[in-house]
Amino acid sequence: MFIKFSVISLQKIAMEKEIVQSASLLFLQYGYKAVTMDDIAEHMRISKKTIYTYFNDKTSLVRSAVMHVFEEIKNKIIAVQSCMDNPIEALYEIKQIAVQVLGNKDKSPQYQLQKYYPSIYAEVRKKELSALGDTFKMNLQKGMDSGLFRTDIDIEFITRIYFNGFRGLRDIELFPPEDYDIDLIIGRYIDYHLRAIVTPKGLNFLEEYNKKV
């Protein structure tokens, strides 16, 4: 009886995970408001009733999908910061990860998330600093140790300023997605950030790097 119960529990966990993964892909591709529960059921070739077995409503599924995407992005960013020795290259590599999620200009999932699910969006914003702050501090320390960043910078202050600025880039009132390309403004923000903290050696590397890319 216990073995049978365990198998059923594992099957339920697997199905819930599959629903979240499928919903996440559709939300990022078409937007959180645009995708319906019917769309997800059709995409997965299951009944809508099955989805409601695991999620009470669309809002609860959106929240699970957003948190799923957040965890995936977090793990990718941590991996980049951990394995890349050059902190400047690491920031631009992380930029590519961010653009993959934020860069759908036509459907603008971020716009729909902020407009239609503001409490979920606010919840993610609150998690960012605590989840990724230490990895960003690692980036700053690597830059100081390698001579690319000034040694007199305040790591805690710069970390908070950077996260606050990055939040601003995703503010749809400050930067409406129809007017601003997220790839472009994130690149400009990183350049702005780096020029404030690099040494002459770091500036030389940054300018050579920008020429290459």
Summarize the structure.
This protein is mostly helical and 213 residues long.
Characterization of the model:
- The chain has 213 residues and is an all-alpha fold.
- It has one domain (2-212): Orthogonal Bundle (Tetracycline Repressor, domain 2), CATH 1.10.357.
- 78% of the residues lie in helices and 0% in strands.
- It has 10 helices and no strands.
- It is elongated and about 60 Å long.
- The relative contact order is 0.10.
Keywords for this structure?
213 residues; mainly alpha; elongated; 10 helices; Tetracycline Repressor, domain 2
User: Can you give the mean pLDDT?
Assistant: 91
Number of helices, counting only DSSP H or I runs of 4 residues or more: 10
Radius of gyration of CA atoms, rounded to a whole number: 20 Å
SSE topology string = HHHHHHHHHH
CATH fold title:
Tetracycline Repressor, domain 2
Structural class: mainly alpha
Taking the sheet with the most strands, its summary is: none
Report the portion of residues in β strands: under 5%
What is the architecture at the second tier of CATH? Orthogonal Bundle
Weakly predicted, low-confidence segments: none
Q: Based on CA inertia axes, which overall geometry fits?
A: elongated
The domain tally reads 1
Q: CATH class, anyone?
A: Mainly Alpha
Terminal residue distance: 60 Å
